[in-house]
């Protein structure tokens, strides 16, 4: 790393780089320790955590699409107690910012989870109100501005950690959602989660995925994500963590220009396990070439004049 | 034991059609060939074209001396079709070695394989150095090129085909009770269709012989992160085929 080109701060959290990894695509970080210097990442948004353990969905869970994939994992996770007791202590040695992504079935459950995770070793909490793959909750809170705001207020009430709300793209007006969660006190907004999609097997006439529908991610969603980040950046003052199909440093630059203060890499980790390191190197070279002294000088600089 | 993992671009040395839609591909990848164990797999990514995700391939041979990895695979969809079009000299990205392999600490194993399930078992047979017998099943004699490959490494080979065009007519498992009774196997290693592995697990248990099975599931990362390949195991535990497997003790997943 050359100097402090990429050093930044988000919600009061110092970050070596503004490159994070998106929840559900990077496990708990440790799975990628052979390929990535985890301390170089701005943070690892760990696999979605719920109050009780969840076994996830049955049947086929992924399908490839043109330039992307569908998934319907369904929030499989061991539950917050196992996370706190077994996973979190194990992560200490990697010196990374652990951002815990949480999903609740009620507003109260978000508050409860936020309180349980108000412990050393957790850098921030990301509220997942946009998982399209579970029936009891998640998306319900992600498509109604009042419900999303209530989730933010519940989390903020019960934790001193910074609270990020992850927006769903499966709404008519993303700006309305963003304003609602900012007003409710969210410290940052991350977007986008997956776009709801589907595949049908033309030989069996059945949906490919066990859950019938799934979330679309990968390079194919990048233009949608970028547009939404740009729209939200016009409307809110809190920092934005941009994500959705980022697979290269060039993609990341676009998100910064659109108004993201940090980016998260998701599906690309499956294809290239050290893609985040390549993105970090590429961003540094780009800033040097553009004679910029810090990544912050790039944020929101798209010229739509 | 957790093996070091690599993600490397590897040159294709050979691509050979073995039977209708069945191919053998060899790549030069010394780092992975050096450490791979029988039952491990790799996730391969095409460096150009429209295939986005990696595809898992069981390792049919790892030759540390030559630095090569060999894969046997059937063309089933767009991904494997694209792999079959690769020619020597082209490159492919190889991520591995991945997963937990077969138990090597046995003296007299019986290998039970059906169709492409024989692929990882070939590496196992070689590594066991003429200690293993092989019971193999296939649809038709035209697919049983496997006998020639296993002849180099196996003690005895028993063959069944669905239509009787080679060996005994029927499924591989139909010969299993007799073999388990008359031979003194101390383990059974199975890979093939689920129904075959299930039956093999049941018969092995009845005969009191420990059995391992190698499972196959759609997966994206191969590293235990995406949870695409999650399965139910004994005691209600969820496990990942890519990281906790693909080889499991049969009681864990079938019984």
Task: Please describe the structure with a list of short key phrases separated by commas or semicolons.
heterodimer, A: 305 residues, alpha/beta, TIM Barrel, four-stranded antiparallel β-sheet, 9 helices, globular, B: 255 residues, Elongation Factor Tu (Ef-tu), domain 3, Rossmann fold, 2 domains, seven-stranded antiparallel β-sheet, seven-stranded mixed β-sheet, 7 helices, 21% helix
Rg for CA atoms of chain B: 17 Å
* Unreliable sequence segments of chain A: none
Strand content of chain B: 25-35%
Would you identify the CATH H-level superfamily of the largest domain in chain B? Answer: Nucleotide-binding domain of ferredoxin-NADP reductase (FNR) module
Q: Unreliable segments of chain B (pLDDT under 50, ≥5 consecutive)?
A: none
Q: End-to-end span of chain B in angstroms?
A: 26 Å
Secondary structure: number of strands of chain B: 16
Question: What does this entry look like structurally?
Answer:
The complex is a heterodimer of chains A (305) and B (255). With 305 residues, chain A is an alpha/beta fold. Helix content of chain A is 30%, strand content 21%. Chain A has an 8-stranded parallel beta barrel with strand order 3-4-7-8-9-10-15-16, surrounded by 7 helices. In chain A, strands 5-6-14-11 form a 4-stranded antiparallel beta sheet, with no helix packed on it. In chain A, strands 1-2 form a two-stranded antiparallel ribbon. In chain A, helix 2 links the parallel strand 7 and strand 8. The longest helix of chain A has 15 residues. In chain B, strand 3 and strand 4 form a beta hairpin. Helix content of chain B is 21%, strand content 34%. Chain B has 7 helices and 16 strands. Chain B folds into 2 domains: 93 residues, Translation factors (Elongation Factor Tu (Ef-tu), domain 3), CATH 2.40.30; 145 residues, Rossmann fold, CATH 3.40.50.80. Chain B is globular and about 50 Å long. The interface between A and B is medium-sized, with 33 and 29 residues.
